[in-house]
Amino acid sequence: MKTNWLKQMFAAVLATAALLFTQTSTFAEDAAAKPKIAVVVSTLNNPWFVVLGETAKARAMELGYDATIFDSQNDTAKEAAHFENLIAGGYKAVLFNPTDANGSIANVQKAKAAGIPVFCIDREINSTNAATSQMLSDSYSGCVKLGQLFVKTVGKEGEYAELLGIVGDNNTWNRSKGFHSVVDRYPGLKMVAQQSGEFDRAKGLEVMESMLQAHPNIKAVFCGNDSMAMGAYQALVTAGKDKDVKVFGFDGADDVVKSIAEGKIVATGMQFPKKMAQQSAEFADEYIKGKRDFAQKIAVPVEVVTKENVSKYGDYGKK
Questions:
Q1: Torsions phi, psi of 297, nearest 5?
Q2: Number of CB atoms found within 10 A of residue 282's CB
Q3: Which pLDDT value is given to residue 4?
Q4: Disulfide-capable partner of 111 in 82, 116, 149, 221 (CB 3.0 to 4.6 Å)?
C-alpha cells in the first residue's frame, strides 16, 4: 500500500513538473514571438527627448510589441552601431530621432535595404526616399510666431543674442530662419552674438556667460530649444541680469512652462512630443500589418506658450 502511494505521489510530481515546464516554454515562446520595434533617440541627456523616447516605447508596447530604446548620445558613430545591432537583431521597425540631417541618411538606407521601415520623429534627414515617413514639428512657422512676440515684447530697438542648436540638425536652421524672417525686418534690433549651445543646458549656460561678458547690454536672448533657455536663464541669474534680459525658448519642456508661469522666461514653442511619438508608433504598427502609403513628411503645428495662456499647457502638451 505504501509503495503504491509513493508511486502515485511520484507520478503526480512528474506530471506537475511537466505542466510547469510546458507553461514556462509557452510563455518564453510567446515573449520570443513578439515582434520588436527599436526606438533610436539622438540623446537622453535632455528631458524632452526622454519623453519622446519613453512615449514611443510605451505606445509600441501597448500595441503588442517588444520595444527597446537606444541612446545615440548625439554621436553619429554610436547611432550607426545601433542600426547595425537592430538590423542584426531582427527588429521590425525603427522609430528614429536622428543625430544629423545628412549623417544619419546612410543608417536609414541600411535599414531600408534590410526591409526595416524607419519613421523619423521630430528631427528629419535630408532625403525624400530613405525613411518611410517623417513626422516633424513645424519649427519654421512656430518661430515666426515667436519672432513676432519677440518684437512685441522687446521692442524695435536694442541688442540681442541667439543660441543656436546643433549645427547639423535642420531644426536648428528652421527655427533660426523663422525667427529672423520677422526680426530682421527691424534694423534697430541688432544681433550682437550668435553661437551654438548644441541644444544642451550646460553648454547654453557656458555660452550665455561668455556672451554677457562680451555684450553686457543685450536686452533679450532667443534660444533654439528649452534646455539652452534654462541654461541661459541660469547664467543670467548668476550675473544678476535675469530681470533685465528676456529669454525665449522652444520645445515646450515642463521646466520652461513652469518658468513662464513664474515670470522667469517669456515664451516657448510647444512641440507636442507625446503626440508625435504615439503617432509614429501607430504608423509602425500599420506598416507591419501591411500598410504602405505613408506621407513622406507630416508637419505638426507648434503653439506659442506665454504667461497669458500657460495654464492650458503642461506635461509636454495641452492639459
A1: -135, 135
A2: 15
A3: 52
A4: 116
- Is pTM beyond 0.70 here? yes
Contact call for residues 235 and 208 (beta carbons, < 8 A): yes
Phi, psi of 221, deg, nearest 5: -140, 130
CA distances from 75 to 51, 99, 107, 125, 317 (A): 20, 7, 13, 15, 28
Report angle CA 34, 35, 41 to the nearest 5 degrees: 120
C-beta of residue 180 within 8 angstroms of C-beta of residue 150: no
CB 161 within 8 A of CB 211: yes
- Structure-block grid coordinates of residue 287: 506598416
Under the banding of pLDDT at 50, 70 and 90, the label for residue 8 is low
The mean per-residue pLDDT over the stretch 221-250 comes to 98
CA distances (Å), origin 2, targets 11, 13, 15: 14, 17, 20
- C-alpha to C-alpha distance for 65 and 204, rounded to whole angstroms: 38
DSSP-assigned letters across all residues of 164-209: E--TT-HHHHHHHHHHHHHHTT-TTEEEEEEEE-TT-HHHHHHHHH
SS3 category, 146: helix
By CB atoms closer than 10 A (0-12, 13-18, 19+), residue 170 is buried
Q: Report the chain's terminal Cα–Cα distance, integer Å.
A: 73
Per-residue pLDDT at 207: 98
pLDDT category of residue 33 using cuts at 50, 70 and 90:
confident
* Confidence band for 27, pLDDT divided at 50, 70 and 90: very low
